[in-house]
Amino acid sequence: MQAFAVLRDSLYFFRCNLIAIARLCLPVIIPQALAVQLLDFMDSDRPVYGDVILMLVFSSFYTGALLVYLDARINGGDPTTQKVFAVASTRIPALISLAMLNLLIITASAAVLVFPGIVMLTGMVVSPSVPIALIALGTVLALWLSIRLSLTQPLLIVRSLNPTAAIRESFALTRGHFWLVAASLTGAVLPLFAFQMGRFFLPSHPMVDVLLDIFILFVQLGAAVVAYRLSCLLTDIHRQKTIA
User: How far is CA 224 from CA 41, 64, 133, 155, 233, in A?
Assistant: First the structure.
């Protein structure tokens, strides 16, 4: 299976179920975008961790609902919005815990290399090549961990694993398939970077910012669909190897 095939299948599902996905996720995405703009208006110099917590809570709700709906549709079901959220709500606390645990693993691991590099670079106690190398290695480590942990959400929602079990299973499934997962997810997030860069060329206005945030958050759902497709594909491959 090539990354192009994964992206093609994911795009096909997203396009065929666009209205249902919008009806399911926009009622949560819109309040998130409005909350961010309200916080910007009230305190533009607020700590970053507040935005991170806000993002983790809101995204857990609509990502969880999307994955429940996706799994039901793939298996021939056509659940109502109420039923999807009823099922997803039982997994939201675990999904929030998982998102925080993933963030902690990635940031703490990368900080072990990046922070000393920044300190050395600021103090210039050694040649600049050493701290720059540490910062680069920390960045690479963060990206590597992000790829290896990318299947945790669909594994937790679809297979009802706890956060630590989902992390172990994600590492197991992505072993030997790193570049497939990396290429697939890169293809899914590239449009997001393009849209974010495009914001610099648009006038800054609260209404424009809200609409752009809603659009970008909605497009971001494509990455969750790709992660689900990868989890199904790699689970099948892993089972075949186990049977063999």
Answer: 30, 9, 32, 12, 14
Tell me how far apart the alpha carbons of residues 11 and 226 are, in angstroms, rounded to a whole number. Answer: 8
DSSP 135-181: HHHHHHHHHHHHHHTTTHHHHHHHS---HHHHHHHHHHHHTT-HHHH
- The length of the chain in residues reads 244
Count of structural domains, the chain: 1
Q: How big is the chain by its Cα radius of gyration, in Å?
A: 19
b/e burial code for range 147-180 (CB count within 10 A of at least 16 → b): bbbbbbbbbbbbeebebeebbebbeebbeebeeb
Q: What is the span of the domain harbouring residue 130?
A: 3-243
pLDDT value at 38 more than 90: no
**Taking 80 as the threshold, does the pLDDT of residue 244 lie above it?**
no
Give Cβ neighbours of residue 95 (< 8 Å, ≥ 6 apart): 60, 63, 64, 153, 156, 157
Q: Rounded to whole angstroms, how far apart are CA atoms 89 and 155?
A: 16
* Contact indicator for 234, 173 with CB cutoff of 8 Å: yes
Angstrom distance (rounded) from CA 28 to CA 1: 34
Please provide the average confidence, as pLDDT, over all residues in the chain.
87
Tokens 């039923």 locate to 83
